[in-house]
């Protein structure tokens, strides 16, 4: 038998990619305690916390406006399923946490979608779960965003604008109703 045949089967590992953004990150350096260089292994039975208190939180944010413990992640397997998931729990009594615009109050928790935006205060975090099979641990890979993850978007006008660029609302305000004509007329 070759060494390849005797080797253990390599299992894939669930990896949570988290991209962090704050509008003042360059001047305040609130992410200086986070390791953006490499993936980190987190044991499956650990509950990694994010917050200001570095003695309690695995991922520390250097900002007095962040709660001592802001939120925690829990790796688990769904009942009667082989699917592994992550849930996020808000541990801040003062700051609400939103996950894809779902507001979580203190001690509320929700399954982390495979791709979502987590917000608290001025912080924006894009979280993307890369599925794996490992039961012993998962990995985190932190990234730093240079631009806002969540952009303010103005909704486009619901009224169609014709090719000539003249809005029908002009005609309606004058009491006229626009009629469609053939280009050849």
From TrEMBL:
The keyword Cytoplasm applies. Keywords: Cytoplasm, Immunity, Innate immunity. Coiled coil: none annotated. PANTHER family: TRAF-INTERACTING PROTEIN WITH FHA DOMAIN-CONTAINING PROTEIN A, TRAF-INTERACTING PROTEIN WITH FHA DOMAIN-CONTAINING PROTEIN A FAMILY MEMBER. GO terms for cellular component: cytoplasm. Pfam families: FHA (PF00498). It comes from Serilophus lunatus. This is TRAF-interacting protein with FHA domain-containing protein A. Belongs to the TIFA family. The lineage of its organism: Eukaryota, Metazoa, Chordata, Craniata, Vertebrata. The keyword Cytoplasm applies. InterPro entries: FHA_dom, SMAD_FHA_dom_sf, TIFA. It is found in: Cytoplasm. Residues 50-121 form the FHA domain. One of its GO terms (biological process) is innate immune response. Its main location: cytoplasm.
């Amino acid at each position: 038998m070759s060494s390849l045949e005797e080797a253990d089967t390599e299992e894939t590992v669930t990896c949570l990619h988290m991209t962090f953004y704050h509008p003042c990150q360059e001047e305040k350096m609130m992410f200086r305690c986070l390791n953006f260089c490499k993936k980190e292994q987190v044991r499956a039975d650990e509950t990694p916390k994010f917050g200001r208190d570095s003695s309690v939180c695995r991922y520390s944010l250097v900002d007095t406006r962040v709660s001592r413990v802001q939120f925690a992640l829990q790796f688990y397997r769904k009942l009667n399923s082989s699917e592994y998931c992550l849930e996020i729990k808000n541990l801040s009594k003062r700051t609400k946490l939103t996950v894809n615009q779902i507001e979580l109050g203190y001690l509320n928790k929700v399954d982390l979608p495979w791709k979502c935006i987590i917000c608290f205060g001025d912080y924006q975090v894009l979280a993307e779960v890369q599925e794996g099979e490992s039961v012993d641990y998962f990995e985190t890979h932190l990234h730093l965003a240079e631009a806002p993850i969540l952009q303010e978007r103005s909704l486009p006008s619901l009224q169609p604008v014709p090719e000539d660029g003249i809005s029908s609302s002009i005609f309606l305000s004058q009491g006229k109703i626009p009629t469609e004509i053939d280009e050849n007329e």
